[in-house]
Design brief:
Elements (H helix, E strand, L loop, with lengths): L1 E5 L3 H13 L4 E6 L11 H5 L14 H8 L2 E4 L1 E7 L4 E6 L4 E6 L2 E4 L3 E3 L12 E3 L3 H14 L3 E5 L3 H12 L3 E6 L10 H13 L3 E4 L3 E5 L6 E4 L4 E3 L2 E4 L3 E3 L2 H5 L23 E3 L6 E2 L6 E2 L4 H15 L13 E5 L2 E7 L2 H6 L4 E9 L10 E9 L5 E8 L3 H13 L24 H11 L3
Amino acid sequence: MKIVVIGGVAAGTSAAARAKRINPEAEIVIFERDSDISYSGCGLPYYISNIVEARDGVIIYTPERFEAKKGAEVKAQHSVEDILVDRKEIVVRDILRNEVKRVSYDKLLIATGASPIVPEIKGIDLDNIFPLRNVHNADRIIDYIQLNQPKKAVVIGGGYIGLELTESLLEYGIEVSVVEKAHQLLTNLDADMAEIVAEHLEAKGVELILGDGVVEFQGDKSVKRVITESGQELDCDFVILAIGVRPNTDLAKRAGIECGNTGAIKVNSKMETNIADIYAAGDCVESINLITGQPIWVPLGSTANKHGRVAGSNLCGVEDQFKGILGTAITKVCDLAVGCTGLTVREAEEKGYKVVSSVIKAGNHAGYYPGYTKINIKLVVEQDSGRILGGQIVGKDGVDKRVDVLATAIHNEMKAAELIDLDLSYAPPFSVPKDGLMIAGLVTDKKRN
């Protein structure tokens, strides 16, 4: 059996490795247009800030290492131009040699990922305007900073990547302005929780321009100024584009593969598309929201890896299912950890849920133990049933474990009042006898009456 994988980052390599483990005799070939495969896109801001000092630190496998350890053939710098469904062939261009050939397959996996949104704005082609999606993009940003020692940057976009890059630039002593079209940062949070992050960034000297878009980049050859919709003029040495990403679906669409209302490829729980023997996984694919049962598109490395594993199993005839996601995520913004899972109040109400919510402050561990700090916990609960629909947690310490506990509770359809029954670990350096999640559950449940 011959399995062809289009895309060699998270989902593609995960699927190839899984398939090779199940069927060592299978011929598996990965085609990747970039020179790098199997890198951590989530780690790129920390590579830029030099927290991760070596380029190899964010590259899990080179093509050569992947071939040697996992047994799949890797064709880097090869772009798949077309899928010939009737022939079960793909059209591949060797980018270095500019040679085109056809490659047959028995099973095909599309793992083409997502690409940064580059807006059609006047001046967008000026030098020193940088997107960030791959290691090459990160290299360009690092080279520019080291060679030019810039003083001022504008980051377009106030989501995860934009804020992580803002922190990276602050590490260099660069003055940063963040421009965000929405009226808050981090639109996957409710506004009250996002405000905590905004206040923290402003205390760090970051200029926040919210509810304002960009209409023009100005400069002779390189960007020198950003003009916003409200008429603000922001002088700068360079710009980071972090507006978001869109799924790479053009190749799939040309082959007749169905996409969902999210714009990403539609698959079933086995990662199968609407065309026989063609699967899809990763950031180009939508998932099912475990709460609403509806399709959502949340491009995260954790989801892509799980997509890949399920696809790899099914490619080799071992049935596996990907049940869905909650959109659980966490990021570091300077001294804060910011985590969320499930639905926000806004999202829940848009889906027709009647909800109650509460925000409490709780200690990360015993107050008498060094390093004590408060964390902010928000719960979103369905009023009639008491079922937990979502939560957001912001603080300096202890956020990650509580977000994961909350995600587990939501996954198992627990009610807010049941959080008090959880047998969570306790010792003064790590927690308190009655954890903040338990208190939040009790407080929110009382609001139902």
